[in-house]
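Reviewer 2 asked us to include a model.

Predict the structure of this chain.
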Amino acid sequence: MVSGEESQTIEPEFRPLDPRVVRLWRLNYLVGFGVLLLMLLAGAVTAVLARPALRPWAALLWCGTAALAGWLSYWRPPRLYRAWGYRIDAQVFETRSGLFFHVSRLLPLARLQHVDLERGPFERIYGLSSLVLHTAGTHSASITIPGLDAGEAVRLRDHLVAIGGDDAV
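Predicted model (structure tokens):
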């Protein structure tokens, strides 16, 4: 039989990220690809000034790259959103992610050292936060859960701190 307090901490089903993360990821992709396209444009202009015969090829290459960037910015974020999930049970925090390469990570709650909240400028615009769970060890000994509602991220952080063991959090 599960006690009342323990039944509140068990979440057997994977929980999705906040749906607003799709717009956030699209914005991140557009900014990143925008910088790349500006650099490619500068390179194309330099090449065309040196050899004007390259103008149609440079234009074709730049337009093709811009179309690919736009398509990826639109196509990838909703699929990433559907691939992401997390759950907490009495002993483990588990995440799953990945489109082509599926990743499942387990973090025993007894090994949890500390929990951070991160909010970049675009995350603040959308009211989202990233939760970073750290264990002892190397840089790869942390798990980041992006795209959580800011209030939910604070609630989850506080919950993890409250259920942490003697050597945890």
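The CA atoms of residues 26 and 73 lie 5 Å apart. Residues 1-8 have pLDDT under 50 and may be disordered. We have added this to the supplementary material.
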